[in-house]
Design goal:
The complex is a heterodimer of chains A (455) and B (325).
Chain A (H helix, E strand, L loop, with lengths): L1 H18 L4 H19 L6 H6 L3 E8 L4 H14 L3 E8 L4 H10 L6 E4 L3 H8 L10 H5 L2 H6 L10 E2 L2 E2 L1 E6 H7 L8 H13 L12 H4 L3 H12 L6 H7 L7 H4 L3 H8 L12 H9 L5 E5 L3 H4 L7 E4 L11 E6 L2 E4 L7 H14 L1 H8 L8 H4 L7 H12 L2 E4 L1 H4 L2 H16 L7 H15 L2
Helix pairs in contact in A: 9-10, 18-19, 23-24
Chain B lengths: L10 H53 L17 H8 L3 H32 L2 H12 L6 H11 L6 H8 L14 H29 L3 H9 L4 H30 L2 H7 L11 H10 L4 H29 L5
Helix pairs in contact in B: 2-12, 3-4, 3-7, 3-9, 4-7, 5-7, 5-10, 7-9, 7-10, 9-12, 11-12
The chains are: A alpha/beta (455), B mainly alpha (325).
Chain lengths: 455, 325
Amino acid sequence: MKKVLALGLVFCLLFLTFAGCKPAETATADATAADAAAADAAAADTAAPEAAQSADTGVLNVAIAADIAPDSVTEWTKMFNTDYPDVTLNVMLEDASNYEVTLEPLVAAGEMPDVVGIGCTDWFATLADKGYILDVSGTPGWDAQLDVLKDMYTSRSGVHFAVANGVETELLYYNIDQFTQAGVTSVPTNWQEFLDCCQKLKDAGFQPLAVAGASPNNLGHSFISFGIAHEIVASGFDPDWNVKARDGEYDFSTPEWQAVLNKAVVLRDAGYFQRGYESADLYECMREVSVGEAAMTIQGSYQTGNIIVEGGANIGITTVPWNDPGKEQVGIVIAGDGYAMGKNTTGNVDLATKYFNYVSFEHADVYQNMSGTIPPWKDAAKDMPNAKVNDKLKAAWDASNALVTKSLEPQQAFTAIVYEQVKQFVQAVILGSAEPSQIGDYLNPAQQEYLATLN
Amino acid sequence: MRKDSVRVPSARRVCLERQDMKKTRHVCYYKSIWKWNGALMALPGIVLIVVFIIVPFLMNVGYAFTDYNTASDVPRFIGLTNFRNMAKDRDFWLVCTNTLKLILTYVIGGNVIAILLGVMITNVGRKFGNFVKTSIYFPQLLSMVVVGFLWRIMFSYNNGPINHFLEWIGVPPDLLPQWLGVPALIIPSISTALIWLISGYYSIIYHAGMMNIPMSYYEVSAIEGASKWQEFVHVTLPFLAPSITINTVLLTVESLSAFAVPASMTGGGGPGRYGTTLALWSYTTYFNNHQYGKAIAISVVLGLFAVVLAFIELKILLKKEVGNS
């Protein structure tokens, strides 16, 4: 009897070991079913009301970011569960600073969620081209968002793969009281005025500029954004550099590229960065400005809520004066993170589309109200009448938006392999272990490696 | 052939031999059954190890020779290109040096602190023993990411308790160390956090080793007039050699795979690559660069590194153990 039990146990364990394995044919069959469901969904617009009603039951797997406004995910889930009581919603929280950590294993396992939060990066465009992310054109969110966002969320092969949750830019946050005490009577409008302003602040005993030296992610889109905007784009040297660098060989060792971080080095050498900037992370950097330990910082507009805090310093916002005297400023355009539809795993594209529209358009105000970001719509007054945007931020955004020349944020312009080196390079320059002229040494080999990955 | 040379067995003898043969067959039958049963019992475990460890490991090694990445429809065999790219990378030697520095500081520091804590636990009275053991072991219960952030705050230049303390004892602000900003201090800082995290666990191993040392040796050393230090060096340490061996190998492997604490302490291995270890480099190559083949090649090198180091350590340390020398 014992032997029989032992043998039974052995076979049970062996069965359990292989129970999770799924033959490739079955997986393909699932994909085919999903494709069929997608075809059904395409016809769903004209289907009978009964058919639409039947789609409101089922299971949805979604992965949504909760970084800037984590409560928005909870709120959406509550609302969706109320509106669609027969739908089982499985929500997975993503880390907005690194979507890939959540999504890469799911992509590799063929388990892409029905709706996903994504960043506007080359990797997601590649996923769209490979069919892991579906085309969302025709959805209300896609139609309503700004044209510039549409461009940024269109892949190489023309897949419209996401609706942004906001539109952003890079701005200069400054301490109004410290400016007054240092005798800075007006906000700087060009590079020379900016240097004078820094010197006055330093002379008055303030730390002029807070820099997140220990945060490569942050360094990857502050100084270098404006370096590229002015030296490469506005100068007319190569406004389409990002398209060229994405599609073929590109040389980053030209004098123009070697100059993109020169101004950052000027600031560092003049001692305008805060003490301990080398080991300050992003939140330390923003805290220093928000409590008045440093007078200025250059950050994405999405950080406004972290810098202008209740009971904190009196903070003003303006466009970044990286332009030489006599030249125009350049605005940086950043697509906010977005919502996309993953290649369906539950087979219910119609229901997935409902959730997608729910968070990306119909109830996008839940996120906007909590995060205070600039709405991504062409007609925000009509599509999001209850938007809550800080007045100072609104004014600075309007000023930035009015600038004639625009440039992309590096994270959204470089390919992933090259961008990783960009971050390393900026950090090395800020710390003094590399010179701006070495940019080609960092980026060219990465560009070669990137080209080798293209099949 | 002579007739009398043939022994004709008696009926009783035949019967006994038959019984013996039957017994032997019976025993052999059971031996064979148990042998197969034992193998069968081990089969699920073996299958699990093969399916979830051996096969993925071999697949992993295979992928190191391909251009596997998100963009590749089918991974192509590219020979040693990933390994060449890794070796050509401007940060390769820096990352290897960081890893070696971490091994040295972590293994030596971890062993020393764990032995000292082990001695403390062994000598502390029964009344406080459990409290001390629990307190020392407590960091082991924390998430590695939490530990990383905790020590990031501890080492913070402007707001860290360590620099506040240094300021309080009179160190001028300009001389306060940038624990996580100056290249020379980053790896020792990471090592400190890791040692804080694991020393409780390893001190328990040393404590167990110390409890097994016969009291007679201490009695003899006391009669001979040995000081506490001499007692420690000539009695305790030699008997702790097996614990030192296992702890050294475990600490080495742990330092090679250290990832979460360095990542959370340094914001992903910075500044530059001064806080990046091989394990962290593999991670960033995978998740940030999306170069899966290259990331796997780095992890293969890391694995080889671990095997070679563990082998050398075992060779040296086993010789030093009491009874093996």
